[in-house]
Design goal:
Elements (H helix, E strand, L loop, with lengths): L15 H9 E8 L5 H10 L3 H4 L15 H7 L3 E6 L10 H8 L14 E4 L10 H16 L8 E6 L19 E4 L1 H4 L20 H9 L8 H31 L8 E4 L19 H4 L3 E4 L7 E8 L3 H8 L14 H4 L16 E6 L8 E6 L2 E6 L8 E4 L15 H14 L2 H23 L3 H6 L4 H4 L3 H11 L1
Parallel strand pairs: 1-8, 2-4, 3-5
Antiparallel strand pairs: 1-7, 6-7, 9-10, 10-11, 11-12
């Protein structure tokens, strides 16, 4: 959650290396993902293109494997490149369940897909390396810096992808379980200031926006939660962020120890945030701040120190920025704009040959746990969220200055603003048309999956992650699918 990297969000947990980057670099106060889920978000970051252009509709449909990323271009222009850890830009981590849930989101039924969010404390006060796979990848990157990077004659680009602070799998939920366990050790939990944790306000289930209700239900969050449960989920999430920060620290320390820090640009960002029980949801797949607002910090030679940038930016801006740093010509077809003018504290009129950076950012989502394609335009104090074809589901409008917790939809109150923001959105993406092509894609994919199973179809579909609900009334759900088809 990007809001943890500046005041007041940074009061809840100690993140010393994020603070180090803020002191010696620039923090973006309004950085957004272009799609709040792993694979589509990474596809946008690696390609510099919006999600409707990469057609990364869900967590297993990303970039074509032969797509030229910014790292490919840097390699072509003489950079030594190295990647470690989670990449997920051609396809993300997902199960058959995730696929089917994404394809069937237009079916007229409501089934719980995730395990109920919960916490799990492991180890003792000395247990530092909780997420072992991430630490192994961090060690590899550190060793590479100390053994390879230090001896290179050419410049390098190193990428490290971490899984944290993603929740962990929840095997208790049975077969095809999701990831709904917030896991940490006492060592990290002690970095969290419990008194500073805000308990989010929830609207009643009957007052929720219909898409939010669908999300909350499929994420198994419509039951009762005590304040203590909610506080713990949030605390454990923050502790997982503290562990992530320590991995960033290992990289910064390795660069410092080798004398490379003063001539290396370091960028820290994320593919999406975590709702951590805001809006009665956990996980991402939402345009609310907890899910869509990401961290973005940059430090290094030429980067302004102790700078806070209020401009709205998004992950598609990484591609042209990386090329700008490497002085490689930037392709003209990109959705993003270089961050270099902002990072160096220059006026926007010295911007790219493509003209000035737009005053808005776009995020969109087409995958599971929502029953409609979602499009978010963020500009000035406004966040406008449009759904599906633009009229079958009511839009949302939030004034983030007056209502930072996004509790009051003011779309009906400000029709003129809704019209003008919708006009901007339609000039960027013909969203009713995109929504319709996603619906067609979902149906095609489902039909071919169903045909591939033959006689086994009824048994397989009943035993996906929604099995606890499905098996109560299998006929009803089977009929809903037949009606949709």
């Amino acid at each position: 959650d990007g809001r943890l990297t500046f005041y007041p969000g940074n009061q809840t947990v100690d993140l010393p290396f994020i603070n180090f980057m803020r002191r010696y670099g620039t923090v973006f106060l309004n950085a957004y993902t272009n799609s709040p889920i792993c694979c589509p978000s990474r596809a946008a970051m690696w390609s510099g293109l919006f999600t409707h252009l990469t057609e990364s509709w869900n967590n297993f449909k990303g970039l074509d494997p032969d797509y030229v990323t910014w790292m490919d271009l840097m390699e072509k222009y003489g950079y030594h490149t190295q990647k470690y850890g989670k990449l997920d830009y051609t396809s993300g981590h997902h199960s058959v369940s995730n696929r089917v849930e994404a394809w069937t989101r237009d079916v007229d039924f409501l089934l719980r897909q995730e395990g109920r969010p919960m916490v799990n404390l492991t180890g003792d006060r000395k247990h530092v390396r909780v997420m072992e796979a991430d630490w192994r990848n961090t060690d590899k990157a550190v060793n590479w810096i100390k053994e390879e990077a230090i001896n290179l004659t050419q410049p390098f680009a190193l990428y490290l992808g971490l899984n944290l602070p993603h929740p962990y799998p929840s095997p208790y939920a049975g077969e095809n379980f999701g990831s709904s366990t917030f896991l940490t050790s006492p060592y990290w939990l002690e970095k969290v200031t419990y008194e500073a944790i805000k308990i989010p306000k929830w609207s009643s289930l009957s007052e929720m926006h219909p898409v939010d209700y669908y999300s909350s239900y499929t994420k198994n969050c419509t039951g009762e939660f005590t304040k203590q449960e909610v506080r713990n989920i949030r605390a454990f999430y923050y502790a997982m962020c503290a562990e992530t920060d320590a991995m960033l620290g290992e990289i910064i320390s390795a660069l410092r120890d080798t004398g490379l820090l003063k001539k290396t640009i370091v960028i820290f960002t994320a593919d999406h945030g975590e709702l951590a029980m805001e809006h009665r949801q956990f996980y991402k797949m939402s345009m609310y701040e907890g899910s869509s607002h990401v961290p973005l910090l940059v430090m290094g030679p030429g980067i302004k120190k102790q700078q806070q940038v209020p401009n709205v930016v998004s992950l598609v801006d990484i591609y042209p920025t990386m090329l700008d740093i490497a002085r490689i010509p930037v392709p003209q077809n990109l959705s993003g704009y270089s961050l270099i003018p902002l990072l160096c504290g220059k006026a926007e009129n010295e911007a790219s040959p493509r003209g000035p950076r737009p005053s808005w950012v776009l995020s969109e989502f087409h995958g599971c746990n929502v029953n409609s394609s979602i499009y978010m335009l963020r500009t000035g104090k406004w966040k406008y969220i449009a759904y599906s074809d633009g009229h079958s589901v009511l839009p949302q409008l939030f004034d983030l200055t007056a209502d930072p917790d996004e509790l009051t939809n003011v779309a009906i109150k400000f029709p003129v603003i809704v019209r003008s923001l919708d006009k901007i959105l339609r000039s960027v993406v013909n969203y009713p048309k995109v929504s319709s092509s996603v619906q067609e894609y979902n149906k095609r994919q489902f039909i071919s999956w169903k045909q591939s199973l033959g006689q086994n179809y009824s048994n397989v579909i009943a035993n996906l992650r929604w099995h606890q609900d499905w098996l109560k009334e299998p006929k009803k759900y089977q009929n809903a699918i037949d009606k949709w088809l």
